[in-house]
Amino acid sequence: MNEVNSVRELQIVEAVPGTSLGQDAWRRLKRNRLAYACLWALGGILLLCSGGALLSWAGILPDPNATHLDRILAAPGDGYLLGSDALGRDVFARILFGGLVSIAVGVVATLVSVIIGVTYGAVAGYVGGRCDAVMMRFVDILYAMPFVILVIVLMSLFGMNLFWLFIAIGAVEWLTMARIVRGQVMSLKKQEFIEAARSLGLGHGSILFRHLIPNCLGPVIVYTTLTVPSVMRLEAVLSFLGMGVQPPNSSWGTLIKEGADRMTTSAGLLLFPAAAFALTLFCLNFLGDGLRDALDPKGSKD
After folding, report:
1. Class in CATH terms, 39-59+68-301
2. Tens-digit pLDDT profile for residues 144-155
């Protein structure tokens, strides 16, 4: 009789749906109010910059590169939302277009650095031995070189345009990513699931790209969000030095440089792009911290 009652109780109990690691991470990220707010703020900034660029191309907003010599250094609200610069160009339209360029440089150059760093670090950590030692000494040599000088040399050799700017910045930002992935792979390649993959006859390439690298995505995602602001700062430095985005195109770095040259007569030319740049960097850094906490395996027991 007791066995019959137990069976009936088991039939009444409904199955509790499970959650994936991604769902758990998303739930923890939403509980981090600052990081979640920064995620929405970044989405708003990207939408505003993209929409502003599209409206400028459609002729609804002023062309960010169109000069109006009769409206030089107009005050905010005097026909322009944030005023005009020394050539009569709309500062608001240039901030939106420059933001799109700066974000594109940050994202694309970061993707280049992620591809190089993940592949390089995974191979070094998986092969090990002398090959790993030689590969990581090469990384140490590159670490000893000043990044800005190396990027300037690359830009001087291959030309100053957006494509080579993506490649040049991505080519010097992959070193830390390679070290992170190498450490993760060295700890994972001794796990039981890798031994099981070898026992099934899987090749080195399959083990590396189908089993090891996917299990390193947590730290990679976190560091990627922290690399984007670093890349954007480097682009701003290069643009400030005249080695980044070339006129008449604009980025937040070029706008800050133009504003710094006239900050005594028109402070808004410096403050407005600097505020947009600082807000974006703060949001990216806080989002990176939130993702680090959300993807922490130790928090999966919450």
Report:
1. mainly alpha
2. 877 777 777 777
